[in-house]
Amino acid sequence: MKNILFVIASATLIASFNANASGANEVRHFAGAQSATLEQALENFSSNNKEVAKLLNGEVNETDMAKIHELTYSLENALEKIRNELDDLADTLENLHNASEVMKRDDVIKQGQKYITTAQKVVK
């Protein structure tokens, strides 16, 4: 009798494990919050990082991991926008540098204003 109960219990556990394991392999994908502007990207980056940090501060259960997974999509979108904007900012800085080097006042003013406008969004 004990052997039969052991076999039934083992079979139940194995079936339960297989059902959970197959469900765990199903990955859900999300679009994530879009970041149309640098300001929006910085806000999304900041707020989503705070949420991830909060979740990591706890027990980090399956629900937390699922929420972190979802948040990473928004973070990836924000970082892509920030990276693109900072690449453009680096180009603008180079233009400012070159214009100042050869004393082109109008270009220095134009590139300088463009540079400062964007840079001030990043550093407040």
Structure keywords:
disordered N terminus, single chain, 124 residues, mainly alpha, 81% helix
Blueprint of the fold:
Blueprint: H1 2-24, H2 38-56, H3 62-101, H4 105-122
Written description of the protein model:
With 124 residues, the chain is mostly helical. It has one domain. The chain is built from four helices and no strands. The chain starts with a helix and ends with a helix. Residues 1-22 have low confidence and may be disordered.
Summary, kept brief:
This protein has 124 residues and is mostly helical.
Q: Provide the succession of SSEs.
A: HHHH
Low-confidence stretches: 1-22
Structural class: mainly alpha
Separation of the first and last Cα atoms: 74 Å
How many separate structural domains?
A: 1
Per DSSP, the total helix count is 4
Beta-strand content bin: under 5%
Helix percentage? over 70%
